[in-house]
């Protein structure tokens, strides 16, 4: 008959190792710098009102034909030789 004691110790050691690794990941996550939602929202508003973006026409107006990087490129008519 195989003794069950060493098996229980190895399971306990495995569980301890997993808990220790999880604890370390939680400590690293806790040490990560945080930004409050209100501060992030204000930064986003400041950026979108100070950086001209053709995807925000309600804020900046419709871009001219030459200014819109998303407009299709106009190709002239074809030349027949």
Automatic annotation (TrEMBL):
<dbReference type="InterPro" id="IPR015898">
    <property type="entry name" value="G-protein_gamma-like_dom"/>
</dbReference>
<comment type="similarity">
    <text>Belongs to the G protein gamma family.</text>
</comment>
<dbReference type="Pfam" id="PF00631">
    <property type="entry name" value="G-gamma"/>
</dbReference>
<dbReference type="GO" id="GO:0005834">
    <property type="term" value="C:heterotrimeric G-protein complex"/>
</dbReference>
<keyword id="KW-0472">Membrane</keyword>
<dbReference type="InterPro" id="IPR041848">
    <property type="entry name" value="Ste18_fungal"/>
</dbReference>
<keyword id="KW-0636">Prenylation</keyword>
<dbReference type="InterPro" id="IPR036284">
    <property type="entry name" value="GGL_sf"/>
</dbReference>
<keyword id="KW-0564">Palmitate</keyword>
<comment type="subunit">
    <text>G proteins are composed of 3 units, alpha, beta and gamma.</text>
</comment>
<keyword id="KW-0488">Methylation</keyword>
<keyword id="KW-0807">Transducer</keyword>
<dbReference type="GO" id="GO:0007186">
    <property type="term" value="P:G protein-coupled receptor signaling pathway"/>
</dbReference>
<keyword id="KW-0449">Lipoprotein</keyword>
<dbReference type="GO" id="GO:0000750">
    <property type="term" value="P:pheromone-dependent signal transduction involved in conjugation with cellular fusion"/>
</dbReference>
<protein>
    <recommendedName>
        <fullName>Guanine nucleotide-binding protein subunit gamma</fullName>
    </recommendedName>
</protein>
<dbReference type="GO" id="GO:0031681">
    <property type="term" value="F:G-protein beta-subunit binding"/>
</dbReference>
<feature type="domain" description="G protein gamma">
    <location>
        <begin position="12"/>
        <end position="81"/>
    </location>
</feature>
């Amino acid at each position: 008959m195989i003794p069950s004691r060493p098996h229980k110790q190895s399971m306990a050691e495995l569980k301890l190792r997993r808990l220790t690794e999880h604890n370390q990941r939680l400590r690293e996550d806790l040490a990560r710098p945080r930004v409050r939602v209100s501060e992030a929202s204000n930064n986003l508003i400041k950026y979108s009102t100070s950086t001209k973006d053709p995807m925000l026409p309600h804020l900046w107006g419709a871009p001219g034909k030459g200014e819109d990087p998303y407009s299709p490129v106009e190709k002239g008519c074809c030349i027949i030789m």
